[in-house]
């Protein structure tokens, strides 16, 4: 690297007088605060035209060409009232007019920079390549169609274009090489221009040298485009029919490709040096912020999402580009994940528990969620970009506008300092940019907006007042279930993948309900989200009341929330001796799903019972023996009393004390010894 730096400095100091004059002319035409466009997207769209025209033996893919044209028309061009298509057409017309008259190519190139002066350097180079791509695509479109389309034949003859391309193969081979090289140099320029150069060191030699090579590269790409246009102009004058002319043209194109290739090699090295310097400075500044108290979150978020246009984020619901200033004085939740890790059902659950939750209306302006997708490796692959684009279309949160441009300093900081563990993580920052929870994703799945402000202390506080109740298990999943919970109804959730057993169980429940048993049974499937379970739910919806089974997506929510509850309890340091954690693990770790399981409870009461296998049907078959105890003991109490008979005959004098902070116990409490209802008294000490 040091050798490359010294070589570049030498080139700068030893640049020819002609280069110095050229740079001065280019800078005179350049507006440093000028217009910019989405150069990367446009170059990709233009590349589709160029690549498919260059690699299919002269027959381009019209499908790709049409897509690229649409993409270009949708690209935003900031600071300009004209659509980008009109700007490209204007550039193309100017180049064509210059090529049709005699004159020095250097003067023509500088004249074009007068038109491009209002654009950033990456925009200049992409616009001139796009202008050539339009001409290039038009030519190959005619070459493809003239053999089978009468109109194309007429247009080809009118334009006096060659019908036989065999003699032009060397020229097109050289042209393809030049196009490929120009695209590579353009990518390097775009990469450099997208860097947050604000974070380079003041008076950095590396930055000055790199900018010098950027100017030279843009000039030679623009000059090469003039040469390419001239090649197509020759087709109409039939000069290409002379072999000497064709050989000279191929040599000229190859020479330009060689020159640009050399420029690209140096430019890539310089851009890498700039990038390393920026990464180092950004990382150090992020670390320094961690040790100091901030007045707001702006500096931290600006460093975490440095973007040259200061609009690093987008509102996924409106696709509007936004800056970090929108997050001032707000709680910020960073949802960090790999794109393919954030499954559809998990995304839907998070949306339901945040944006779609009834309580969210009161808090929606107090916090914001930003999706920060990270690649699986050092670079983004097409599948990851597709996953991001699909998910970011429907998520109601904010997201990184261009994840591939996320600074490697930010990625390093997230992985090393914020302890990203290769799994979806929701980091919480308070309004001062201070981390108050390393991962709030589970508490949001469990409690939704009730977990605000989503701090680690709030999670511990919520569990202090929480037991494993029907309200906790199913309250946020379904509106009807939430209503039943509030009404205090006896509820039974059950699961199995055996349709025969499910029908037998439902038949028995219906029979007992006719005998006066008040119980609502809801099928929640299994923790294996299979197509078989989905078919069972569909069958139950047809054979019984729709309320008899959750929808498949809602059942997935049920099991995802159970997983989150278990992780949350374990994060608080709970062990297998914890009753809530033990019950959650028992539900999640059921191995035999054929005979089924049930859990019966009521509303917000912590009194519940879980039965499994043959025990379920045996208990229901003997309803006559315990049904009379439902009214005095409650349904759960009656079943417990039947399954676990009293240890002693008659009432006992057993008692126990409950601290006042835990005294809110709903329903009847049974004595653990004689299994009879206990009376409640208040004791003062």
Automatic annotation (TrEMBL):
It comes from the Eukaryota. It holds the Pfam family SEO_N. One of its GO terms (biological process) is phloem development. Transmembrane segments: none annotated. Residues 457-685 form the Sieve element occlusion C-terminal domain. Residues 18-289 form the Sieve element occlusion N-terminal domain. This is Protein SIEVE ELEMENT OCCLUSION C. It comes from Acacia crassicarpa. The lineage of its organism: Eukaryota, Viridiplantae, Streptophyta, Embryophyta, Tracheophyta.
């Amino acid at each position: 690297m040091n050798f490359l730096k010294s070589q570049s400095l030498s080139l700068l100091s030893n640049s020819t007088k002609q280069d110095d004059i050229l740079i001065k002319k280019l800078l005179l035409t350049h507006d440093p605060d000028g217009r910019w466009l989405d150069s990367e997207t446009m170059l990709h769209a233009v590349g589709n035209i160029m690549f498919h025209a260059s690699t299919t033996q002269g027959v381009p893919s019209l499908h790709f060409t049409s897509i690229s044209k649409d993409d270009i028309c949708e690209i935003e061009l900031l600071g300009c009232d004209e659509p980008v298509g009109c700007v490209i057409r204007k550039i193309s017309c100017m180049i064509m007019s210059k090529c049709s008259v005699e004159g020095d190519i250097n003067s023509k190139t500088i004249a074009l920079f007068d038109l491009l002066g209002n654009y950033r350097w990456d925009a200049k180079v992409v616009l001139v390549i796009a202008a050539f791509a339009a001409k290039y695509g038009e030519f190959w479109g005619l070459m493809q169609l003239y053999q089978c389309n009468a109109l194309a034949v007429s247009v080809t003859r009118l334009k006096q274009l060659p019908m036989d391309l065999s003699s032009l193969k060397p020229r097109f081979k050289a042209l393809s090489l030049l196009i490929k090289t120009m695209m590579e140099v353009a990518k390097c320029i775009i990469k450099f221009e997208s860097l947050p150069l604000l974070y380079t060191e003041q008076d950095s030699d590396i930055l000055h040298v790199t900018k010098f090579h950027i100017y030279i590269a843009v000039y030679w790409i623009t000059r090469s485009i003039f040469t390419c246009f001239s090649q197509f102009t020759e087709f109409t004058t039939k000069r290409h029919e002379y072999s000497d002319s064709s050989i000279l043209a191929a040599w000229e194109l190859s020479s330009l490709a060689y020159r640009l290739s050399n420029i690209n090699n140096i430019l890539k090295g310089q851009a890498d040096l700039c990038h390393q310097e920026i990464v180092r400075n950004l990382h150090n500044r992020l670390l320094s912020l961690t040790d100091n108290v901030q007045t707001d979150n702006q500096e931290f978020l600006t460093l975490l999402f440095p973007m040259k246009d200061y609009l690093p984020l987008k509102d996924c619901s409106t696709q509007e580009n936004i800056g970090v200033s929108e997050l001032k004085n707000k709680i910020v939740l960073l949802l960090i994940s790999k794109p393919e890790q954030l499954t559809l059902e998990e995304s839907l659950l998070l949306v339901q528990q945040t944006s779609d939750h009834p309580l969210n209306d009161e808090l929606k302006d107090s916090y914001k969620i930003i999706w920060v997708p990270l690649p699986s490796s050092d670079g983004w692959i097409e599948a990851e970009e597709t996953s991001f684009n699909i998910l970011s279309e429907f998520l109601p949160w904010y997201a990184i506008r261009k994840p591939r441009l996320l600074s490697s300093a930010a990625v390093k900081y997230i992985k090393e300092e914020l302890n990203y563990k290769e799994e979806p993580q929701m980091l919480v920052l308070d309004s001062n940019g201070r981390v108050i929870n390393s991962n709030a994703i589970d508490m949001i799945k469990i409690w939704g907006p009730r977990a605000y402000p989503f701090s680690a202390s709030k999670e511990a506080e919520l569990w202090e007042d929480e037991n494993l109740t029907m309200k906790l298990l199913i309250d946020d999943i379904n509106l009807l279930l939430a209503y039943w919970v509030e009404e205090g109804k006896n509820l039974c959730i059950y699961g199995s993948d055996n349709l025969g057993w499910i029908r037998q169980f439902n038949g028995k429940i219906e029979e007992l309900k006719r005998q006066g048993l008040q119980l609502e049974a809801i099928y929640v499937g299994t923790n294996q989200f299979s197509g078989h379970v989905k078919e069972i739910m569909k069958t139950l919806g047809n054979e019984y009341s729709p309320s008899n089974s959750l929808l498949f997506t809602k059942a997935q929510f049920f099991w995802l929330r159970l997983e989150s509850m278990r992780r949350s309890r374990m994060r608080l340091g709970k062990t297998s001796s914890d009753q809530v954690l033990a019950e959650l693990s028992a539900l999640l770790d059921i191995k035999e799903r054929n005979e089924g399981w049930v859990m019966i409870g009521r509303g917000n009461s912590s009194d519940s019972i879980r039965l499994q296998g043959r025990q379920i049907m045996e208990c229901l078959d003997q309803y006559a023996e315990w049904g009379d105890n439902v009214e005095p003991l409650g349904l759960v109490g009656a079943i417990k009393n039947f399954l676990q008979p009293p240890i002693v005959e008659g009432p006992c004098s057993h008692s126990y004390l409950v601290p006042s902070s835990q005294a809110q116990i709903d329903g009847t409490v049974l004595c653990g010894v004689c299994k009879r209802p206990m009376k409640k008294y208040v004791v003062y000490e």
